[in-house]
Design a protein that fits this description.
Layout (H helix, E strand, L loop, with lengths): L3 E7 L2 H4 L9 E5 L6 E4 L3 E16 L3 E17 L3 E5 L4 E5 L4 E5 L2 E4 L5 E3 L11 E6 L2 E6 L5 E6 H7 E14 L5 E3 L6 E12 L2 E4 L3 E7 L2 E11 L16 E10 L1 H7 E9 L4 E11 L2 E10 L2 E13 L5 E4 L2 E8 L3 E8 L6
Parallel strand pairs: 1-18
Antiparallel strand pairs: 1-16, 2-4, 3-27, 4-15, 4-21, 4-22, 5-8, 5-14, 6-7, 7-10, 8-9, 11-12, 12-13, 14-16, 15-16, 16-17, 18-19, 19-20, 22-23, 23-24, 25-26, 26-27
């Protein structure tokens, strides 16, 4: 099943009331002052960054919403025997392979996992032909579509023994995983991300993209509507020698949840996201040599360290256990070759 990351549009009031501090850039400091913290050498001891909180909804459990898409049905027939027919003055052989599957409807069955024509001269496959079924007076005739080359004529009982059949519909699925929140991308956007979605047909295996999902609060409950627009998969992916078959398909799938069902399924939460263009400042523990404790101060922008703003500094524990650099102040409680315990007295000042 093709899983897609899709957008979730939340339009209803009870889940779109924004907290006052959502999507507001603010300073985020790690760790909290006066809290004893332990990190390993190479870890960030202090970090200041500009970030904002995204509004998210966390599924309380893993569950899926599924529904049938439309009423169009695909029937697949799998042959239990090899059926062959020479045609075209003996240049070609038309084949329904044993174990091969044809899908569609009685007037248009296409091979999905076998080549239906072979050239006598070299045995190479040719362009696939499709098949059709004609039912008349208790008999079923399998012929090629278009040229109407008769492949085999069977009674209904013989046909059931020769071909196994299965029905398939298009199905839409939204999968919500416990602990994987869906989040609104920006303050003025109604788009949510991090939802797994698919619209699939199992016979044959095909998938369609899902463009968006809207969630609307009504007097009847919360309506979730998934829009899917596009074409079916290229069957050349399943069979390289087959023709390029596509089917245009568009529509929507709808689920209705009561407000209680929605609230029982999701809880509101948030996610801290760093402002991409903002500057970040860090102090990293770089080890100890005797009484000299080494640190590395760095400034980052767009996730990249700025070379001119990376500095190493030290403190001598025999003199003082308190370090101050770039306005940040912290006390070293214990330092070894691999770890350091410390507490922040004052974080980096906010630059204006």
């Amino acid at each position: 099943m093709l899983k897609l990351r899709l957008v979730l549009v939340l339009l209803f009031l009870n889940v779109s009331a924004y907290a006052a501090d959502y999507y507001v850039n603010s300073t985020s400091n790690f760790p909290e002052p006066l809290v004893i913290t332990k990190v390993y050498m190479g870890d960030k001891m202090l970090q200041q960054r500009f970030a904002y909180s995204e509004q998210c909804y966390n599924p309380k459990k893993t569950f899926a919403l599924r529904t049938q898409v439309g009423t169009e049905k695909t029937v697949c027939y799998t042959s239990t025997m090899q059926i062959e027919k020479e045609c075209c003055m003996g240049y070609w052989t038309i084949v329904v392979e044993k174990g091969g599957t044809m899908c569609g409807d009685d007037s248009n069955l296409r091979p999905v996992d076998f080549d239906s024509t072979y050239r006598h001269s070299d045995g190479n496959p040719g362009d696939n032909v499709r098949f059709a079924l004609k039912r008349k007076r208790g008999n079923i005739t399998l012929s090629t579509k278009g040229s109407r080359e008769k492949m085999i004529k069977l009674t209904e009982a013989e046909f059931e023994n020769t071909f196994t059949s299965a029905e398939s519909y298009w199905n839409a699925t939204l999968l919500f995983e416990e602990g994987v929140p869906i989040c609104r991308a920006s303050e003025n956007s109604q788009i949510f991300y991090n939802v797994n979605a698919s619209v699939t047909s199992t016979l044959p295996i095909e998938s369609l993209p899902v463009s968006s999902v809207s969630v609307i609060s009504t007097s009847r409950g919360v309506i979730i509507n998934a829009e899917h627009v596009g074409s079916t998969a290229n069957h050349r992916e399943l069979l390289p020698s087959s023709r390029f078959f596509k089917k245009q398909f568009s529509g929507s799938s709808t689920w209705t949840l009561s407000e209680e069902e929605f609230n029982n399924s999701f809880e509101e939460t948030s996610k801290v996201t760093v402002v991409p263009s903002s500057m970040q400042r860090t102090i990293e523990y770089a080890g100890i040599n005797g009484n000299l404790v080494k640190f590395i101060y760095s400034e980052f922008k767009d996730g990249t360290a700025r070379d001119a703003f990376t500095r190493e500094f030290t403190i001598d524990l025999s003199g003082d256990s308190v370090a101050a650099y770039k306005g940040a102040v912290f006390e070293v409680i214990k330092a070894t070759n691999s770890t350091i315990e410390y507490k922040v007295i004052r974080n980096f000042p906010v630059e204006t």
